[in-house]
Design a protein that fits this description.
The complex is a heterodimer of chains A (305) and B (412).
Chain A (H helix, E strand, L loop, with lengths): L10 H38 L2 E2 L7 E2 L3 H7 L2 H33 L5 H9 L6 H11 L7 H8 L12 H29 L3 H9 L4 H12 L1 H16 L3 H7 L10 H11 L3 H25 L8
Antiparallel strand pairs in A: 1-2
Helix pairs in contact in A: 1-13, 3-7, 3-10, 5-7, 5-11, 7-10, 10-13, 12-13
Chain B lengths: L1 H21 L2 E7 L5 H12 L3 E7 L4 H10 L6 E5 L3 H6 L7 H6 L8 H6 L1 E2 L2 E2 L2 E13 H6 L11 H12 L6 E4 L6 H7 L1 H6 L17 H15 L23 E7 H10 L5 E4 L1 E2 L5 E12 L6 H12 L1 H9 L10 H5 L6 H10 E2 L6 H6 L4 H11 L3 H18 L2
Parallel strand pairs in B: 1-2, 1-3, 7-8, 11-12
Antiparallel strand pairs in B: 3-11, 4-5, 6-8, 6-9, 6-11, 10-11
């Protein structure tokens, strides 16, 4: 950091160096946690991925063969494809629901905190619990949705929602939106509330319409918030596992195997821990790349224009 | 405060240690879905012996990976009731205790169920011994037969007959169905109840050396047709399409006319659902003949367990006449041939059909059983769902055939 040439550093420099050490001490606990629980496991996973590593029995060095295998693995590629499809659909669905909700609960009106609480409630339910709840709701005989449709006379026969890809996928999307939209709403709400009311008033006085204010004032000022919500939503969707495992066990005819589900199957059903590790590293690379692209697209690092 | 806590925990630990020296506590895992027989024999053993067995039930579809990860993490139980088809794979991985010498010293060793011992044997050493035996059989609800105007005492012998009967039973009412099977990607259920249709007709899904997948046969096409036809005619509840095995015993609700199930289920039906009046016969083949799947569990011991003697004592109790009687009462067929007649004396005669099935039954021997057949995301599980409920039967056949072959090839 500092040049080693100077033999007698000025007092000012000395102080700065001391405060640098103090800073390191402050972040040391956090760094220790990150190194212990993130960096080291990742390095170990990378090490495993270079081996044929069965769950039981001896390991064998195979270099990059696991990574080569990945590109010819049709099941992995279809898992990637399905995960991408799911991520796009569910992210759009979550934002389409959460943004109007955020605008709705932002204004001061009667019962607004009650609305906020009700919308946020599903978020505090665990995803596995929510999945089990919806398995019951969509059960064809003893559930709620199918029998209710039948009781209303909309269908002749209670439909088995989890039996075909389209209806099962729709059910899962609705479940996830119900579960997650409240959280995204809260994030967006904080962004909305951070917009100074003077700006909105000034825009009103200048004669800007509702849509113009939203497009040229609200959206630009919420860029960072939207980026945060988007990254959380996309990352969460790419790592989706519970809902597919619990609600459809991989879906009708294995059509709902997400990437994490496939990694789980390879590691703990087929016992190829090495290959599972290689897939995990690939997934990590994909996630990092997507996050960088999102941050760049939304120009989060730059100052406001 | 912390000191006091420490003191308390050390006292508790001391108690545990001293308690263990007096009587051993054997940790044992058992898969779900094998009925009550094992639970009851554990209860009987615990109430009459100083050593105790602590049983943990694990969902059958997760037992293999749970056990394997527990071994890898050093948390494995002392012993396990293992679906016998997995025995070769775990023995080959060197994770099980070699029981050869002890097993051969048992006076009744030669009377133990031979197919179980065969699957428990790997390279001439014995790693698993029979714990429970069951075969798949066809059951029909006599009350519903009577209501539908059928002869309740006449067992159907062909699938044409079964389909015709199912139609009559379906006509009884809204929530009464003619037939049931767990078709939502439950590979284990379908290999148990559905492959006998193919085996009975003389075909198989794997070649004799297990190195070639032979899924696409005229017999399999016919068998798939039979099930498809029943689904199309609405003789099967809609829930079957997504039942991953959780509702395998739907027959017990009394609204299913006919279902293929196992001897364990006979035990559960007799002891827990005495109101259901049912008959049992062998599963007919798709084009004639009869067959069955000989399944059940082997008793295996985790390598290096310190409680070997206690585990052996428990296993010997299971093989005693008392133990065998308890097991048989709850549907596990006797594992000891020499006292089978004595054990079955006075028990439900329908269990005899389960014994008859052993003569025509098959069990596949492959190290890749989980990947090929049992895994919920394996080719067999998705094939049965796609071929019976899907739109494109030909694609289902060619996909599954290709995927099974590639799994077999990658394992060699």
């Amino acid at each position: 950091m500092t040049g080693s040439g100077s033999e007698t550093p000025s007092p000012r420099r000395k102080r700065r160096r001391r405060s640098g050490w103090r800073g390191l001490v402050y972040i040391a606990p956090a760094m220790a946690l990150v190194i212990l629980f993130f960096v080291m496991p990742v390095i170990f996973t990378g090490w495993m991925s270079l081996h044929n590593w069965p769950l039981m029995g001896g390991t064998r060095w195979i270099g990059f063969k696991n990574y080569v295998r990945m590109f010819n693995d049709a099941r992995f590629l279809s898992a990637l494809q399905f995960t991408a499809y799911y991520t796009v659909i569910v992210t759009i669905a979550i934002f389409a629901v959460a943004f109007p909700l955020a605008i709705f609960v932002e204004k001061q009106r009667r019962f607004v905190s009650a609305y906020r609480t009700i919308i946020f409630l599903p978020v505090v339910v665990g995803l596995a619990t929510a999945s089990l709840l919806w398995v019951w709701l969509s059960n064809v005989d003893s559930g709620f949705i199918g029998p209710a449709l039948k009781a209303l006379g909309w269908v002749d026969k209670s439909p088995n929602l989890l039996a075909t890809f389209d209806s099962a996928f729709l059910t899962i999307i609705i479940m996830v939106v119900w579960k997650i939209a409240g959280f995204t709403m809260i994030i967006l709400l904080t962004g909305l509330q951070a917009i100074p009311s003077e700006l909105t008033e000034a825009a009103c006085i200048d004669g800007a319409g509702r849509w113009q204010r939203f497009r040229h004032l609200t959206l630009p000022l919420m860029r960072k918030t939207i980026a945060l919500a988007l990254i959380i939503s996309v990352t969460g969707s790419i790592l989706a596992f519970d809902q597919f495992y619990i609600m459809t066990s991989g879906g009708p005819q294995n059509r709902m195997i997400s990437v994490v589900y496939y990694i789980f199957n390879q590691s703990f059903v087929s016992f190829n821990l090495g290959y599972g590790a290689a897939l995990s590293i690939a997934l990590l690379a994909i996630l990092v790349a997507i996050s960088i692209v999102q941050l760049w697209l939304l120009r989060v690092g730059e100052e406001r224009p | 405060m912390i000191k006091r806590l420490l003191a308390a925990t050390s006292v508790v630990t001391l108690c545990l240690v001293s308690g263990a020296s007096a009587a051993e506590k054997v940790e044992m895992w058992v898969r779900s879905g094998i009925g009550e027989s094992f639970k009851k024999v554990v209860e009987a053993y615990n109430s009459s012996h100083e050593n105790q067995v602590a049983m943990t039930e694990v969902p059958f579809s997760e037992l293999v990976q749970k056990y394997a990860t527990a071994i890898a993490g050093g948390q494995a139980p002392d012993a396990l009731s293992m679906d016998l088809i997995y025995n070769p794979a775990f023995a080959a991985a060197g994770q099980l205790e070699d029981l050869t010498d002890w097993a051969k010293s048992l006076p009744y060793f030669n009377a133990l169920s031979p197919s179980h011992v065969k699957l428990g044997t790997y390279e001439d050493r014995i790693y698993g011994l029979p714990l429970s035996v069951e075969t798949s059989v066809f059951a029909w609800n006599k009350d519903l037969y009577k209501k539908a105007g059928l002869d309740p005492e006449k067992a159907p012998t062909t699938w044409d007959e079964i389909t015709a009967n199912a139609e009559k039973i379906r006509a009884l009412g809204d929530d009464t169905y003619g037939f049931y099977f767990s078709g939502g990607g439950c590979g284990g259920c379908m290999i148990f109840t559905f492959t006998p249709l193919v085996w009975g007709s003389g075909a198989d899904i794997l070649s004799a050396d297990s190195k070639t997948a032979t899924l696409d046969t005229p017999e399999m096409r016919k068998a798939i047709d039979i099930y498809r036809n029943m689904v199309k005619k609405d003789l099967v509840p809609a829930g079957a399409a997504s039942d991953n095995g959780a509702n395998f015993l739907t027959f017990t609700n009394g609204k299913i006319g006919q279902q293929s199930l196992g001897a364990f289920a006979i035990g559960s039906l007799v002891t827990e659902h005495p109101d259901i009046n049912f008959g049992v016969t062998l599963i007919p083949g798709a084009t004639g003949g009869t067959s069955s799947f000989a399944g059940g569990d082997n008793f295996v011991i985790t390598k290096g367990t310190p409680k070997m003697d206690a585990v052996k004592e428990f296993l010997q109790y299971i093989y005693s006449e008392d133990g065998q009687k308890v097991m048989a009462k709850y549907g596990s067929l006797p594992t000891r041939g020499d006292i089978a007649d004595k054990v079955l004396e006075g028990l439900d005669p329908r269990l005899q059909v389960g014994i008859q099935a052993i003569a025509v039954a098959k069990t596949p021997y492959t190290l890749q059983f989980n990947d090929l057949i049992n895994s919920a995301n394996g080719p067999w599980a998705s094939f049965t769902n796609a071929a019976i409920f899907g739109d494109d039967v030909d694609a289902a056949f060619s996909n599954a055939q290709g995927e099974m072959q590639s799994i077999i090839d990658s394992g060699q």
